[in-house]
Every structure is written in C-alpha cells, then in structure tokens.
Amino acid sequence: MKDFMPLNVAILTVSDTRTTENDGSGDYLEVALTNAGHRCAERRIVADDVYRIRADVSCWIADPAINVIITTGGTGFTGRDTTPDALEPLFDQPIPGFGELFRQLSRKEVGSSTLQSRCVAGFVNHTLIFALPGSTNACRTGWEQILIEQLDSRHQPCNFANLVNGGSGHHG
Question: Which residue(s) pair with 12 in the sheet?
Fold first, then answer.
C-alpha cells in the first residue's frame, strides 16, 4: 500500500457577510483536512466578486507550494453567487464528475433543491480546485463523502492526490 502524502490546502470562503469569527464552513474544512493529515497552507475570506475570487485563487494557482484549493460559498443562483463564474475560465481541465456526484449525494439531504448547487471542480497548473456551497452541512457532505477519499493518496482504484504529486505541486 502507498504511503499517505499530506497535501497543502488553501481554503477560500466566498462571502459578503462572513468574518473570521463566524466562518463556520471554513472552520469545519480546516479542522477536517488537518484531522485527515493534510496542512492548511492558507485561509482567506473574500467578497463574492468574480475578480476578487479570481485574484486570490490565481495567486494560489501560481504558488507551487499549494496543491489544493477548496472554496466555500457563492455556488448558488442568486446574483451575488459568482464562484463558478470566477473559477471555470481558469480550469485547464474541468472535473464535471465532482459537481455531479456532490448533487447526487446532497439530494438525500436537501431533495430537489440540490439542482440549485453549482458546485464545480477543476485542475489548473498542477493544482486541484473544488468549489463547495457555503453551508457547513454541504461542506461536510463534500468533504466526508468525496474529498477525504479523493485527496488520500492511498485511495484505490484512483484518487486526485496522486495528480499533484504529494506536496511538490509538480508532476514528477
């Protein structure tokens, strides 16, 4: 069996109202990923604005020390929900199965309202990006039912952790 490779993960909370004091989803993700053996490399809160989101994410994409970016918030259908619009043009390769699987899993919790989730994921410059909804329950679903396995280099038959080469940020 392969060894576990801890990844450097950046967390971006997209919100016009959250602060470091009330960012429950960001708090959950930081605890969950560190409990799984990964490192929280950086964490920020950004207003729900396409260009601000893109600017923060682009800095992390350019940083070879960041392997994974997880965003929370801004994935719905209101006028201020712009996270997918900010991220999708950056993707070298979209990961459509992530949003599909997330909506399938969250249907058990929110029923047909899962249609309003615009969760997306992609691969950019050897960096994985996953956009989750802003609710802590949705982040828990995404982490516990998808990301914990897919970011574990030991998960079989395949996982995304091996694509980022376990911390170097470059293909070997």
Answer: 44, 71
- Stronger pLDDT, 151 or 74, i.e. the higher one: 151
Structure tokens at 102: 């997330």
**Lowest-pLDDT choice from 44-48, 112-116, 147-151:** 112-116
Residue 88 and residue 102: Cα distance in Å, rounded?
Answer: 17
- Whether 73 contacts 142, CB under 8 Å: no
Q: Which range of residues forms the domain containing residue 104? A: 8-167
* Within a domain: 75: yes
- Report the CATH number at residue 118: 3.40.980.10
Contacts of residue 74, Cβ cutoff 8 Å, sequence gap at least 6: 14, 15, 48, 53, 80, 81, 82, 83, 84, 86, 131, 134
Mean pLDDT of the chain: 92
Answer yes or no: are the C-beta atoms of 6 and 35 closer than 8 Å. Answer: no
Domain count, the chain: 1
Kindly report, residue by residue over 38-75, the tens digit of the pLDDT. Answer: 999 999 999 999 999 999 999 999 999 999 999 999 89
Does residue 115 form part of some domain?
A: yes
Q: What is the pTM assigned to this prediction?
A: 0.93
